């Protein structure tokens, strides 16, 4: 019998790509779920997921444990920035209520409802 990989065994490179793709798809699904729930802004989920992954990955190049901020502080700030880049919370607060802003919010809500209806997504109870 020949030593090494059998033809049916995936290579290490293939395994690494498969794991990477699974992680990216999982993160994109998280963003899509947040959009469907109305918690995240209407964004391209793939672009949002890759942007957040890039922001997290790039920190390995510039973070220094001897720098002015601890790993926990930097992690907290990156997480906060990532979440706030997606959330609808600030966008939906009416600082100066006007009919046009209220109508825009209602249209956004109707769009979310229509997407969930056509995608077969269920509705959860309000918090």
TrEMBL record:
User: Which residue ranges run through the membrane?
Assistant: none
Q: Which Gene3D superfamilies match?
A: Tetracycline Repressor, domain 2 (1.10.357.10)
InterPro entries hit by this protein = KstR2_TetR_C, Tet_transcr_reg_TetR-rel_C_sf
Protein name per Swiss-Prot or TrEMBL: TetR family transcriptional regulator
What organism, scientifically named, is this protein from?
Caballeronia temeraria
Q: Where is the HTH-type transcriptional repressor KstR2 C-terminal domain?
A: 28-85
């Amino acid at each position: 019998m020949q030593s090494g990989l059998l033809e049916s065994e995936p290579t290490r490179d293939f395994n690494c790509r498969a794991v990477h793709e699974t992680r990216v798809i999982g993160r994109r699904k998280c963003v899509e779920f947040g959009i469907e729930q109305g918690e995240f802004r209407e964004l391209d989920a793939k672009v949002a997921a890759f942007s957040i992954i890039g922001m997290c990955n790039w920190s390995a190049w510039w973070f220094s444990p001897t720098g002015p901020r601890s790993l926990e502080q930097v992690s907290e700030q990156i997480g906060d920035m990532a979440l706030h880049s997606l959330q609808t919370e600030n966008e939906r607060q009416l600082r100066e209520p006007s009919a046009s802003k209220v109508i825009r919010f209602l249209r956004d809500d109707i769009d979310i409802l229509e997407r969930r209806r056509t995608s077969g997504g269920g509705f959860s109870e309000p918090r």
